Fold:
Amino acid sequence: MATQRILDFLATRRPNGPCLVVDLDVVRDNFRAFEKALPDSRIYYAVKANPAPEILRLLAAMGSSFDTASVAEVEMAMDAGAPADRISFGNTIKKERDIARAYQLGIRLYAVDCVEEVEKIARAAPGSRVFCRVLTDGEGAEWPLSRKFGCVPAMAVDVLRHAKALGLDAYGVSFHVGSQQTDLTAWDRALGDAKKVFATLAEEGIVLKMVNMGGGFPTRYLKDVPAAQAYGRAIFSALRKHFGNALPETIIEPGRGMVGNAGVIKSEVVLISKKADNDNVRWVFLDIGKFGGLAETMDEAIRYPIVTRHDGSETAPCVLAGPTCDSADVLYEKTPYPLPLSLTIGDEVLIEGTGAYTTTYSAVAFNGFEPLRSYVI
Amino acid sequence: MATQRILDFLATRRPNGPCLVVDLDVVRDNFRAFEKALPDSRIYYAVKANPAPEILRLLAAMGSSFDTASVAEVEMAMDAGAPADRISFGNTIKKERDIARAYQLGIRLYAVDCVEEVEKIARAAPGSRVFCRVLTDGEGAEWPLSRKFGCVPAMAVDVLRHAKALGLDAYGVSFHVGSQQTDLTAWDRALGDAKKVFATLAEEGIVLKMVNMGGGFPTRYLKDVPAAQAYGRAIFSALRKHFGNALPETIIEPGRGMVGNAGVIKSEVVLISKKADNDNVRWVFLDIGKFGGLAETMDEAIRYPIVTRHDGSETAPCVLAGPTCDSADVLYEKTPYPLPLSLTIGDEVLIEGTGAYTTTYSAVAFNGFEPLRSYVI
Structure:
């Protein structure tokens, strides 16, 4: 996944310290793959995955819409050239004064998952479109979501009814099947729930128009176009099954799927050591860890591919850890990571698939280490 | 723990958004309590706990030494007025060029836990003092340490012997009993291990001089001076027991113990909702979460006291969560947090005991939210 452009950049520029390099060509390909796989859906890029201005400008120019989590992200998307009608304020947790500010900026599409949030929007963004997030079971996802966002479908009916009563446009339903979802039936179940909300409200004369299918598209399928299209077909047939000929507008919100495989982190081996002479596991310490951008290694959830100049030679299991004085700054320990025996202190390593959720997760200055630098090429 | 000075500051200044307020008077009291409890130990404040310049300047003026984790922290301590001979480069994981830079700045005291690190120091900081960290079992600590730092005592002997052979000053041994350690026998066991390293090397004519007892002092004992002194007495008698009349120099490295109870985070309730009509647990969303500074709620390890204007009225269990679109941004869920039923959206809450490990853990801009602001008064 380290493209030739990334390798050339690193070889030529030789940046000091850990850094992320993102190849815009890969982002461009990913956007086109999503367009091709789901030609009838509008793509709202999840800005939180990587808000680098170069990425936002490219996607804005390609016609992408944007899913934002805060007023700052709304402003970033607008600065990148996205008009307000291509921006969704997708966070279900918003201060009323932030809603007012987004409304002032022209934003007319808001996520909700409870009556209390509807009331804020009715006051601060009158007449806007709202969609209500419903809880899904998250089965089959590599990173199942907690119950933090969404409400049960029966409550979504109340929420959208209340929105209508307060003069808002009860626009649709959203769900998120969980990150890196590989079980295609997850979309089928969630779309079935969405349809029930549509049907119940239709009986009261409230006609919903949109289903926001969120993110969760597994990165690895993007490289494999037939598989991406198989995803698209499965989702389309679930839509057909539940909605028949009255297909709603659909939105997708890829984040990791759009930029994850476009980025590579360059790091350096700071130390290789053992804790006792007879230990058979070496400790390898990198100059980046959990607090420098690799927060998603939490509970060893995401296992990034690591490339070294010794690949192909004999390997042995290592505990991989970051450079801070924090004992929690360990990346892989429960399942040690096989690395070449010939790896030495000072070697560069490439951590692949790190284009999403790295720069923004980086701590401000933990242990005095500066935040992860990023180059978008 | 919200002192009158902090309450007055918040009432007068009314800062917008979440922020940390640190009362320097409490830091001053904590420093004096440590001096009193362990009069024969030198205090090295762990800069990583909170590197605010005002805190470093106060402690430098009071005569504190500083435990640093990076060149940036060395520079911060020096900028605050600490001379180089009061600074320890306490991270066992250092790039050789960072050691060289610290040496250039005058730093002559370094932590190691393996032969490989000793070799870097011999090359980049010739003649310096090194102390070797030994592993402890961490039993009895609220936040037990992983095996990330230190080596077994037998290996520490090799490491220090190697240091001596390379012309370094084999200066001593360090350990860390784990954060918030309440079991006084933990120090006794660790000091016993340290003594063995001293004794083995003495037989070879290598005379160690110092024991670095690290941090781990529980915050809550500081308010209670007799208890702090009981701690001091227990440690002193363990020193006596193992070292007899040949007491070594000792160092302590309080971080959380120095600043934890000096800080309060002011936050705002953004949303209170349920996921279903029949849920008996409410979700309370604050404008600060795991990525805005409260990273230590990871696995619900640290449970901060939360103060509201409704305290004393009837409470009910709540799931407490942060404001980002990240499903992992939940503070307390496995053990719900009791909060007043009359708590409402827009209410201010005070999160106490947050002076340590908050500002620096804060993410750069996750979801577009700015890092935790801090006021030191």
The longest strand of chain A covers residues 263-273. Chain A has two domains: 90-254, 261-376.
